[in-house]
Amino acid sequence: MSQFVRASSQFFFLAAKADGGRTVGVRRARDQRHLGEQLRRERLVALRVWMLPAWASTSDQVSLRDQGELHTQLAQLLTRGVPLVEALEATAKSVAPSTAPRVERMREQVSAGSSFSDAAASTAMFDSVTIAVYRAAERSGDLGGAAKQLAATTRRQLRISGKAGTLMIYPAIVLSLSVIVSVLMLAFVLPNIGKSLKDMGASLPWFTDVLMTIGVFMRGNLLWLGVGSLALITIAIGLRKLIGMLVARVSRRVPLLRDVVLTQESARFFTVMAAMTRSGVTLADALGTAVGALSHPILKLQLASMRTKLIEGGNLRSLIDTVSALPLPTRRLLMAAERAGDLDSAFETLAGDMTEELERKSDRLLAAMEPLLIVGMFLLIGTLVISIMVPLMQATSGAMGR
Question: Minimal CA–CA distance to 389: which of 202, 229, 160, 130?
Fold first, then answer.
């Protein structure tokens, strides 16, 4: 791994622009001097710089969108005969400012004699799968074709990531808004109404009295509650990897959601296999890289076992049938493609089919989640509304009886 990856840190900076204005941002660099060099290339002058702690730093990886833009630009330029160094120089202007310095370093290394795949690895521009595809394309002399294939692969991965994000963000927003409304009602609305009813001599139900006591306590300790919330958020950020692992483990066991997760992992697997086999990577090597990109334990274990037995001389057609995590029609299609000697086209077809299937299953899951979210909102907000309405109705009935 390169020195950039080993020693880079993330900095928050305040910088002066050429027109006299000010701008702030977050950038990763080896040190403050290296950060200053990056900013000078963008005609910025660092005024104040703060190094972010490790737990607050974001991922060192280039965004998938920027990777897709780089693949697309390289495919268009290289297939038209533009030299690689000139193509990288043009591509650096089309990616995000945070990614442009890496592309520039890649261009410098390529112009100095390094291969494209080595330059990409030393700057941590891509993941191991993408680098393996480009390395195989360099051996076959079709770097532009590999870039075109990877551009299509990245667009498919963005669709997969977008669906996964929707599944996470939609319920999170609904539940967050429900919690905020509930806290506001509990801390400010319920105590005031309860106090007014007590002043009128009304008798409050026990659950209204309990909630009102909680609300009075929250309103009297807002500062400490805010500090506690910030502490919990900080702990959650620090433990985000562990929390992510727990969420993934639970998602693989929940009905409906586990089907979506398996389809997502299958789409990722076939997308990687399509990109690698199209670039001339051997099946065993492609399987080794693709299995490493998976996180589903059962699918990963079965595919790893299939690869091991394949290397030992097993019959691929029989080994495919042992991967029971894949649907039976998928296995039959792969076995037929293996007989016809056209596995790379089968991987491409399955990658597209799995992506479309993921969209359908995600839509069904969101449709099933909506009633559950409504029930959750009722439990949070409806309980508070009932605790207010019951004493109000009792007080109204008592007044009418008199």
Answer: 202
- Kindly give, in sequence order, each residue whose CB lies less than 8 Å from that of residue 147, ignoring residues fewer than 6 positions away: 71, 72, 74, 75, 78, 134, 137
Predicted pLDDT of residue 55: 55
Total residues found in the chain within this entry: 402
What pLDDT, in 10s, does the model give residues 228-254? 888 888 887 777 778 777 877 777 777
In the chain the first and final C-alpha atoms are separated, in Å, by: 84
Please name the amino acid found at residue 135: R
Instruction: Please tell me which of 207-211, 306-310, 386-390 the model is most confident about, judged by mean pLDDT.
Output: 306-310
Longest Cα–Cα distance in the chain: 97
Taking the C-alpha atoms of residue 24 and residue 14, their distance in angstroms, rounded to an integer, is 5
- What architecture is domain 156-394? Up-down Bundle (1.20)
What pLDDT digit, counting tens, does each position of 180-201 carry? 888 888 888 888 877 777 777 6
* Bridge partners (DSSP) listed for residue 51: 11
- Residue corresponding to tokens 């995600």: 362
Contact by Cβ (8 Å): 11, 27: yes
Query: Which residue bears the tokens 């994000």?
Result: 165
d(CA 29, CA 346): 42
Q: Beta strand 44-51 with 22-29: parallel, antiparallel or unpaired?
A: unpaired
Which CATH homologous superfamily contains domain 64-155? Type II secretion system (T2SS), domain F (1.20.81.30)
pLDDT above 50 (res 3): no
By the 8 A CB rule, do 12 and 50 touch?
yes
pLDDT digits (tens, 9 = 90+) for 41-76: 778 888 888 887 765 555 556 788 888 888 999 999
Write down the domain spans for the chain: 3-56, 64-155, 156-394
